[in-house]
């Protein structure tokens, strides 16, 4: 009987056993490496202009950044014949601000040289009056006089 109790207690102890967590050594503290190429006040400037006569695409963009303030302008030709121009600025205090305006497209008229007239005065030809002889055809059947 004692053996049965021992087996019962051993089984219960085994069922309640938990895995012991392994003790890990703390990770070493990494030294902070300073990036000497980091610029706390970056500055840039760029721009592009697209004038595609084949597709009719006409747009442009100019932007610059200095002292944490981004400013720029972009423009695009609208289908209604105007140009949309957007001037914008962005900074940490005021956020993004844009001013949108429309201006008419300045379309240059093609230069066409007028050709000199070939004749100074056109003369109408005189009317041709000709009388044609009447067309006379023979009778298709013979006339018989009944008496």
TrEMBL record:
Decide whether keyword Transferase is in the record: no
Q: Name one GO molecular function term.
A: structural constituent of cuticle
Which GO cellular component terms are attached? extracellular matrix; extracellular space
Q: What InterPro entries has UniProt attached to this entry?
A: CHIT_BIND_RR_consensus, Insect_cuticle, Insect_Cuticle_Struc_Prot
UniProt-recorded name of the protein: Larval cuticle protein A2B
Q: Which organism is it from?
A: Acanthoscelides obtectus
- Pfam families for this protein: Chitin_bind_4
- Which N-terminal stretch is annotated as signal sequence? 1-17
Q: Which UniProt keywords apply?
A: Cuticle, Signal
């Amino acid at each position: 009987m004692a053996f049965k109790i021992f087996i019962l207690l051993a089984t219960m102890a085994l069922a309640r056993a938990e895995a012991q967590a392994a003790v890990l050594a703390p990770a070493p503290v990494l030294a902070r490496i300073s990036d000497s190429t980091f610029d706390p006040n970056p500055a840039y400037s760029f721009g592009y202009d697209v004038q595609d006569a084949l597709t009719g695409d006409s747009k442009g963009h100019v932007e610059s950044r200095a002292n944490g303030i981004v400013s720029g302008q972009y423009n695009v030709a609208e289908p209604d014949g105007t140009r949309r121009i957007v001037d914008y600025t962005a900074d940490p205090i005021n956020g993004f601000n844009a001013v949108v305006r429309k201006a008419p497209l300045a379309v240059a008229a093609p230069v066409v040289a007028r050709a000199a007239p070939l004749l100074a005065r056109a003369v109408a030809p005189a009317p041709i009056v000709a009388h044609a002889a009447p067309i006379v055809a023979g009778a298709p059947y013979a006339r018989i006089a009944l008496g």
